[in-house]
């Protein structure tokens, strides 16, 4: 199935703050086609200083609480990195990448539409793994 890739207008480097980054990640997440039973929280993790850029790391942790199990059996995390180049003008929008927990594939929001199935797969794998132990 062809998915329409939804993205947002990202802030410029000069207007970036850690909190603005978290708000924009929430804005991006709101464009994802995910069932309302999924709940998440997002948080800032760390700032990383590199030779050519500054990177801001965030995490969104997902789960499906129910009445019978208000604390989910397992959660799935999506890790975001917001990159501010030291060489591009500060009027340039920040660059954003994300990856799913337990994978190394790095995705860009403008190139790949997020799929709810990815979260389900992580949680199902964790539950299967726990049951084997």
Automatic annotation (TrEMBL):
Regions that span the bilayer: none
GO molecular function: protein kinase A regulatory subunit binding
GO cellular component: cAMP-dependent protein kinase complex
Protein name: AKA14 protein
Source organism (scientific name): Lanius ludovicianus
Lineage, opening ranks: Eukaryota, Metazoa, Chordata, Craniata, Vertebrata
Gene (name only): Akap14
């Amino acid at each position: 199935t062809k998915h329409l890739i939804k993205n947002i207008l990202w802030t410029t480097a000069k207007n970036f703050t850690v909190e603005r980054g978290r708000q924009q990640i929430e804005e991006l997440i709101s464009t994802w086609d995910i069932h309302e039973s999924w709940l998440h929280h997002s948080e800032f993790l760390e700032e990383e200083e590199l030779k050519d850029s500054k990177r801001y790391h965030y995490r969104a942790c997902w789960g499906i609480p129910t009445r019978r199990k208000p604390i989910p059996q397992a959660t799935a995390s999506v890790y975001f990195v917001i990159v501010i180049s030291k060489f591009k003008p500060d009027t340039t929008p920040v660059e954003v990448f994300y990856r799913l927990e337990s994978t190394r594939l790095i995705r860009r929001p403008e190139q790949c539409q997020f799929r709810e199935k990815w979260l389900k797969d992580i949680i199902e794998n964790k539950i299967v793994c726990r049951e084997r132990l």
